[in-house]
């Protein structure tokens, strides 16, 4: 059977035309897909800028479906889910990223960190801890350690928190000496063995000599152990190293002065501090010491009036009026109750980080969990 070359001559142009049409079709489809993907991406970005998170999520999902290999869209989508509180969906997005074999090393670390944050926000602390430990030795190690520190503080696991703080301090990731002192204080407060607690507090003082808490906690412990002389010595050291914290320790100094008989010495120290930085707590302690002495009892109340020359204080005014005789003495109880009600909010402490107010001083804010954010002065004095 003879082969007809005419078929070849006829087929070549036909094959060329069909190949050209196929390439044009693929090119059009690729262009259409590329147009759809950026359009969905920018649409999502616009919704996000307008704080329309539901619409932004829908747009990003559409963009991810058009281009499943785009890592940045997955990260954006996962972060949006986390911000909305849809932690299970955020976990699925980041786990999908980690399951990809073609993911670059840096993107894998980002996905691991994002997954840990998902677990942390969802309250799954054990899974978050495991995910964060996998970032040890990576570029995100410092961020992972900070998150681990938050986990251990939240669960009040002070020994492990201290271990992370030591690592970060040793790696020059910040000064964590004061934080380590707080952790040692927390461990000491949990002990019933007083000598062991004292040893931990002395370690805390050594870790952060300028921090106030360890010395104040040690003074309270020495009061429990019946050591007034040691208590007074500790508080005198506090006044030398951190005079701003003395208002917190002033009531303890009054107790130590009475127990040791060294009233004049304590009184002189408190008056010297008050002259430098007038404080309601220090003023109250001075008045208590002077009231206990008959020679100075009559003039002790005038301290409140003298304080008004330094600072306008409703608290000092109320304390002075409480001991004064008024012209219409029958109205004195009502006036005293009204003033007590008015000054109560002024006697609180306020967190400098979040504004959370409390009747007692905290070393770690119950609201924002920030350490050392409460000044040693009352709201009226700020």
Automatic annotation (TrEMBL):
Coiled-coil region(s): none
Cytoplasmic side: 24-382
Membrane topology: Single-pass membrane protein
Residues annotated as transmembrane: 6-27
Top-rank taxon, per record: Bacteria
Keyword Nucleotidyltransferase attributed: no
Pfam families in the record: TPR_16, TPR_7, Zn_ribbon_LapB
Residue numbers binding Fe cation: 351, 354, 365, 368
The UniProt record lists the keyword Cell inner membrane: yes
Subcellular location: Cell inner membrane
Sorted UniProt keywords: Cell inner membrane, Cell membrane, Iron, Membrane, Metal-binding, Repeat, TPR repeat, Transmembrane, Transmembrane helix
Annotated function: Modulates cellular lipopolysaccharide (LPS) levels by regulating LpxC, which is involved in lipid A biosynthesis. May act by modulating the proteolytic activity of FtsH towards LpxC. May also coordinate assembly of proteins involved in LPS synthesis at the plasma membrane.
Protein name in UniProt: Lipopolysaccharide assembly protein B
Native source organism of the sequence: Verminephrobacter aporrectodeae subsp. tuberculatae
